[in-house]
């Protein structure tokens, strides 16, 4: 990890319009949790549904999309990435630094809000808050790797990523049996399911399979982004 690249990336992410989205989305979730708590509509089933539908299935992938594409996509679009590529910094170090920044942003703006939402609504009844927090934490790493890789591959990463999130992860990932097994959301939900006794939390993917896929896809995303950066530098030289 390169501290200089990390600092520049953090400054760029938190100083752009993306910062408003990073703050706005979790704020909506927290307001919803507070409203349900005030109206005394926060039983275990409701809390589990809010944490799953709005936290794990919606907030997490959207925040990861904003963070993952934002840490490197704009630099590729305006050509600034070539300045970094001319430095004697290994491509994997650049990718891992960008990925680490994206993951820290996911922790700050998705994992922590989910933790606070769970505390507001249910405390830690049936370990539901800690389970969803860990589920979002592990799912966030995989989503970040996917979207960083997508940003390196395509200039339309945001549009493609948004389509993927809305159609595959949110729509098909919740309702289509076949798609559930290939959904990051369901893999993260499997981890959550293993950590809580709450009956509403159910995953269709076995835990060992889910953990293996989370690790595999995260590693593949980081590796593919590194290889693609090498091709960018070669193309620039030619």
From TrEMBL:
The keyword Nucleus does not apply. It comes from the Bacteria. The chain crosses the membrane at residues 51-72, 93-122, 128-150, 157-176, 207-225. Keywords: Membrane, Transmembrane, Transmembrane helix. Signal peptide: none annotated. This is ABC transporter permease. It comes from Actinomadura barringtoniae.
């Amino acid at each position: 990890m390169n501290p200089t690249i990390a600092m520049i990336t953090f400054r760029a992410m938190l100083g752009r319009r993306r910062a408003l989205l990073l703050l706005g989305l979790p704020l909506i979730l927290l307001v919803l949790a507070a409203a349900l708590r005030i109206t005394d509509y926060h039983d275990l089933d409701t809390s589990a549904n809010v944490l799953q539908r709005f936290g794990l299935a919606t907030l997490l992938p959207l925040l990861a999309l904003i963070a993952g594409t934002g840490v490197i996509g704009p630099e590729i679009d305006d050509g600034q990435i070539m300045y970094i590529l001319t430095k004697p910094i290994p491509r994997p170090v650049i990718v891992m630094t960008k990925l680490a920044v994206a993951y820290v942003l996911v922790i700050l703006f998705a994992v922590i809000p989910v933790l606070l939402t769970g505390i507001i609504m249910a405390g830690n009844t049936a370990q539901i808050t800690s389970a969803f927090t860990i589920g979002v934490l592990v799912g966030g790493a995989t989503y970040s790797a996917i979207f960083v890789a997508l940003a390196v591959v395509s200039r339309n990463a945001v549009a493609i990523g948004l389509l993927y999130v809305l159609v595959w992860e949110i729509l098909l990932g919740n309702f289509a049996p076949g798609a559930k097994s290939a959904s990051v959301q369901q893999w993260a939900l499997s981890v959550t399911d293993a950590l809580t006794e709450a009956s509403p939390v159910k995953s269709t993917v076995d835990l060992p399979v889910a953990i293996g896929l989370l690790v595999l896809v995260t590693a593949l995303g980081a590796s593919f982004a590194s290889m693609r950066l090498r091709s960018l530098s070669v193309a620039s030289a030619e």
